[in-house]
Each structure stands twice: as structure tokens, then as C-alpha cells.
Design brief:
The chain is an alpha/beta fold. The protein has helices spanning 2-25, 29-51, 62-102, 115-137, 178-190, 214-218, 244-260, 299-302, 319-326; strands spanning 144-152, 162-167, 195-198, 226-228, 263-265, 269-275, 278-284, 312-315, 335-338, 348-350, 354-356, 368-372, 375-379, 397-405.
Length: 409
């Protein structure tokens, strides 16, 4: 109860502080009333959703995620505005003190707020405010097809030009627009890759979340098949279960559903992709992540029946597995495909110039292609979204990787 009281008091304080900027810029009272009404509605909705709304565990339901998204949006607006107002207030206070002790009137008074600074504060605050709203309504379905060509000395000749489409982090429990998911699935099929590889987190919590979308993802087609692994959310660890048996049944239901959808789910095992006499070892491990994330992945079990000389593609949901276990392994894993980070669904990416997201402080490898010891990893930014119901700057991704035989000339 105390935390809610503190939240309300802080929120009200911030709201009335920002109101000072509005009063400096706009003279019409209706502007203040509209602002205060919106601020109040956002707060009331947030409190309602998180006290009386549906309880789904540590992962937010759709209604809760929108309540969180709106609160985050308006708080960002307030904090940026206040940054300018507070800086100006420090100057106003110093000016008032100087006037009292060294001025002619010797009376303490604060100079009026400068209208220009209030306009600047509100204008700059409107940029992330608008971006976060855009991310919630358009950005989360702004699918991007990212294409890479990777060269290898020892790629089997028959696989020169082999195309892989990777998708990751579907998070079907967050979807709210069937038309846009249909569009995303059609983009995947349009790539006409030889194989489709899904690197985990099909659901947020429960298998039932995927059932309304199963027919769409069942329509994915690739000549050499569709393969998948589990991500940390697929195990149902983030919701309470009445019994351990129900939790285990949920996981089994998800495995069965993936099979019904046409995915070959790799559980610490491998398959061979073959073209004539040539072959590639496709390896899939269960989730393995650093910190408190599930460590069900067993790399040694997955490769126990393949040769060290085989060309290897590894599917492992969490990129920390690549850094901590895969790269140091004596076996050479030519390409690893991961997801998990979502690029934090927020950042700035300008190809050839900048790639930044706060998630870089948590994960060394968080989006795109990386290379260490002649081994590659691609960290997919994710197809879906979780928590904040949107994406800003880090768009949903469909990755197409073409394998190339490195020329000896």
C-alpha cells in the first residue's frame, strides 16, 4: 500500500511541476484541464490494472502492458520537461538570492519563467512522447527483413548460396492485431529460404497463447523444413501453477503444438541438412542463459553424435550461451543463431553509423552479427514484443542469412 501512495504523490508532484511550463506557454485554461485529465486517467488505469486486473504472474497481460506503456510515455514527457524547468529554477533561485543581498530592493523575488525555455522543454519532451506512442501503435509491427551474407572456408560446396530465415521471440501472448501478424508471416514466406529456424520464446507464459495464431505460423514453408528450440519463456516459469504436473503438461502441450505447426523442435539434439553427398549439422539446445535464467541446454549432449569436422549451425536462444560456453568449446561452431534480448525494443540504429540500446549494458552481443575466433553469431531482435507493448528504433526482425563458400583467389 505504501508504494502506491508514494507513486501517487510523486506522480501528482511531477504533474503540477510540468503544469508550470504549460501555464507559461499557453494562456487558455482548457489546455491545463486536458493535460491534468489525461495524466489522471493514465495513473488511474495503471493502478486499476495492477491491483484489480487479471493476475498472470511476472509477465504482463496485454491490458497491463498497455497501462504500463501509457504510464512510461507520460512519465518520460514529464521528466524531460522537468529537467529543463528544474535547471531554470536553480538559476531563478540564485538570481533571487543575489537580488536580496546585493540588489537595490533587497527583497527576495524570483524572476519570471522564460517562455522560450518552457517551449523548448515541452517541444523536446514531445519527441520521445510521440515516439513511444508510435512504438505502441505502429512500431511493434514495423517488420524489417535484414539480410546478411557470411563466408566460410569450409562450407560444403553444395551449400554455397544456402539461405536461412531466422525468426525469434514470437511472444504470441502479446499479439493484438491479426492483420499485422499475417503480414509478418507473409514476409517470412516471401524470402523463399531453404530453411526456417526459430530460436525460442513462442509464448509469454502458456501454450494457450499460441493457439489463436498457430494456423498462421503453420503456413510457414521452407524446402528443407522448419526447426525450433525453446526459449526461457516457453517453460512457463513466470506464472504460478497449482501443481508441478500442470506446468509440465503446459510444456508438453507446447512441444506438441510446435509439432502440429510443422516445426521440428530440437531438444539438445541435432539434425543433418543434406544436399547430395554434402551435409550441415543443425544443432538445437534448450535454453541456457547467464544469471538467473534457466540452464536446461546441454551442448555436449546435442553434439555427441556428430563429427568435429562437420559444418555446424547452432540454435541457442540466449546469446550469453555463445559467449560463455560455445566460443570457448573445443568444437568449432561456425554459426550460432540466438534472440532473447529484443534489443530492449528501444534504441537508435542508423546503418553504418550508430547502433545503440540500453540493453548493451546487460548483453555484450545484443543485436546483429558478431564474430569471435572465426565463429559467427546472429542475435535476432525478435518478431514480437513483451512488457512495453511497442518498439522504438529497434524494429521487429526477420533475418535472412546466405551462406557463401569463401573464394580461394
Amino acid at each position: 500500500m505504501l508504494r502506491w501512495v508514494l507513486l501517487v504523490l510523486i506522480y501528482i508532484g511531477l504533474s503540477f511541476y510540468v503544469l508550470q511550463a504549460l501555464k507559461t506557454v499557453a494562456r487558455q485554461p482548457w489546455v491545463y484541464y486536458v493535460y491534468l485529465s489525461i495524466a489522471a486517467l493514465v495513473l488511474v488505469n495503471f493502478i486499476y490494472q495492477f491491483t484489480a486486473g487479471e493476475e498472470v504472474g511476472r509477465v504482463l497481460s496485454v491490458s497491463k502492458s498497455y497501462a504500463f506503456g501509457f504510464l512510461l510515455t507520460i512519465l518520460t514527457f514529464k521528466l524531460i520537461t522537468i529537467l529543463f524547468l528544474f535547471s531554470e529554477d536553480i538559476f531563478r533561485f540564485i538570481s533571487g538570492v543575489y537580488t536580496k543581498f546585493f540588489g537595490i530592493s533587497r527583497e527576495f523575488s524570483l524572476p519570471q519563467r522564460r517562455r522560450f525555455l518552457s517551449i523548448l522543454a515541452l517541444g523536446l519532451a514531445a519527441v520521445p512522447f510521440g515516439a513511444l506512442l508510435y512504438g505502441m501503435y505502429k512500431g511493434k509491427y514495423n517488420f524489417k527483413v535484414l539480410k546478411y551474407s557470411l563466408e566460410f572456408d569450409d562450407l560444403p560446396d553444395a551449400f554455397d548460396g544456402y539461405r536461412i530465415t531466422q525468426i525469434s521471440d514470437i511472444h504470441s501472448g502479446s499479439f493484438d492485431n491479426r492483420k499485422m501478424i499475417e503480414y509478418g508471416v507473409s514476409l517470412i514466406n516471401e524470402q523463399k529460404s531453404d530453411s526456417i529456424l526459430f530460436t525460442g520464446d513462442m509464448v509469454n507464459n502458456k501454450t494457450e497463447e499460441m493457439k489463436p495464431w498457430a494456423d498462421l505460423f503453420a503456413s510457414l514453408e521452407a524446402k528443407d523444413g522448419k526447426f525450433s528450440v525453446l526459449g526461457n519463456h516457453d517453460y512457463g516459469d513466470y506464472v504460478p501453477w497449482e501443481t508441478e504436473e500442470l506446468k509440465e503438461q503446459n510444456l508438453q502441450d507446447l512441444k506438441d503444438l510446435q509439432k502440429e505447426m510443422g516445426f521440428d523442435l530440437l531438444l539438445n539434439e541435432h539434425r543433418y541438412l543434406r544436399k547430395g553427398a554434402d551435409k550441415i549439422a543443425l544443432i538445437g539446445v534448450e535454453n541456457w542463459g547467464k544469471g538467473g535464467f534457466k540452464k536446461a541446454g546441454d551442448l555436449q549432449k546435442a553434439v555427441s553424435e556428430i563429427d568435429n569436422s562437420d559444418f555446424k549451425i547452432l540454435m541457442s536462444h540466449d546469446p550469453s550461451h555463445w559467449e560463455l560456453e560455445v566460443v570457448p568449446d573445443e568444437k568449432h561452431f561456425h554459426l550460432t543463431l540466438s534472440g532473447h534480448t529484443h534489443g530492449m525494443q528501444f534504441g537508435i540504429e542508423i546503418p553504418g553509423w550508430i547502433k545503440w540500446s540500453p540493453v548493451k549494458w546487460r548483453y555484450k552481443h545484443w543485436a546483429g552479427i558478431y564474430k569471435e575466433k572465426e565463429q559467427f553469431i546472429n542475435v535476432n531482435r525478435g518478431f514480437g514484443f513483451l512488457g512495453y507493448p511497442g518498439r522504438v528504433g529497434i524494429w521487429p526482425e526477420i533475418t535472412v542469412i546466405t551462406l557463401k563458400k569463401k573464394s580461394l583467389t
